[in-house]
Amino acid sequence: MSVLVVVYSLLLPFFGYGVATLLAIAATAYFLGMRSWFSLLAFSVTTPVVTRFIFERLLAISLPLSRYEPLAELEQQLMGFLAGIFIWR
Amino acid sequence: MFEAFLQGFSLLLRIDTYVYIAIGLTVGMFVGAMPGLTTTLAVAVLLPISFKLEPMVGIPFLIGLTKGGIFGGSISAILVGIPGTGASIATTFDGPALTRQGKGRKALEMALVSSVTGDLISDVITLSLIGPIALLTLLIGPPEVFAIIIFSLILISSVSSESGIKGGIAAFLGLGLGFIGTDATTGATRLTFGLEALNGGIPLIPLIIGVFAVPEILAAVESRAARFIDEHVDMSKVGDRLRWHELRGSIRTILRSTLIGTGIGVVPGVGQVVAAFVGYSAAKRASKHPETFGKGELDGIAGPEAANNAVNGPTLVPMLTLGIPGDNITAILLGAFVAHGMRPGPQIFQEQGPLMYALLLSFVIANVIFLILGYFLIKPFAQAMQMKKAYLLPLILALAFVGALSTGDTSDIGIMVVVGLCSYVLRKAGFDLAPLIIAFVLAEPIEYTLSQSLLYAHGSPFHYLFVGRPIASFFLVAGLIWITWMTVRTIIRRRRSKGASA
Lengths: 89, 502
Fold this sequence. Notes:
Chain A has helices at residues 2-31, 37-58, 69-86. Chain A is an all-alpha fold. Chains A and B meet through helix 1 and helix 2 of A and helix 9, helix 18 and helix 19 of B.
């Protein structure tokens, strides 16, 4: 698990919060016995999306984006989409 | 002072304070109920959220987490005999026995009422006494504050760890980390090893998360158990509600334990665990039927639960008036106060009296929300204890990283991970890391008060501190006596144990 924490911290600056967290959550959950692929996928995709939305859009804590433009763009679009649904102006 | 108190009331008229208290209480109870996860973990991981809120919202949110966390620990202690947090160890003496007798619900409700009462009364005592105490602290100068900080550090180091030497090492490590960076007086950098990233010192958030959250996550994963508890909790068999006559029978115990917890809370480093044990043994000694203790006695729940929550209010007295945190959580709270632009110390009630009173009043009101929420959440949280770790630990890991990233500097992740892995090793080696974090937050006041004292001393610091300032001298001598006593006691114990094994 210590290795996973180190790898997660190394991946963050390159892949950004979204993808690095997705991988870290999937690995940790698998390590702790989650074997259903559907649960693994749903849990590891939902968590970074929800946490990024709450912290970035509601609490103004900016989280790093991926260095790869398409990934960063995808994350931004997703956040914009969620903000359109959940944040009334 | 009274005017500041009245002005404080006007700051309380906002709904978001209470909403965040309720969120804090709920999350605190939930985390506290999970064996292996502590209140400190919850406060450390969610600390950055409080930084993004106004002080009148962010600080009560952290207090809600603390109050809820301490009570949450008693849910698993009563139902399955596994303490959720250290503060609820004494609750395991009678809790499981009551559950086996079909009185689990009575025990849980007794724990809730005792916790709320202990917390409420100790908060009111704190609120009444903190103003006059703050006025007294204005009479003392930097040499006295320096001596009191040193004395408190010695006390915390010696009582919080299993060995005083380990506590001392942790405190020195904390001071070393606290001194890293640029000297405020001379502008020179020190202990940075040429790393520019360390010129500004070690940031508090990644350090706190590294010390408290990372080792706990690693330890929780290491156990390899799929769930927080293996036992099945059947809430339909926990029996009837607590009756008024049963509560009335424990009122003396609750009040006694509240006073015990309040007294213990003022002393830095002692904390909730000791208060709970003292509260339990005092209840047993005062009981007309002490033989029932350990076999399912409601007073055995009321005693420790009132005492451990009663510690909450008074720990704020040395923290707010002198800037000295007594335990892990108050050390984190001190960081939160500083981040919100409030510098705890003798001047704080002069400079920000209305805000301080408003915060303390919100802690009192939080107890009412605590009682209502606790009443409704006992059952769902008792069932939540059986949840799989695979759903909660990855989330906590992600939140820990978000916390470290909240500073806006991705290099803080590196600090958190390095500190976290080192803290994990230290914990494995039997170190309690409370002295480390407390020494870290005290490093700056130690440096400031010492440099001021040296300035006043005009070249003869020992004569000045030990003869010229009697209060400072008292605390420094008391610290030396305490170290001598602890050393002698350790030597005697080692000789006795060697003699016994030979």
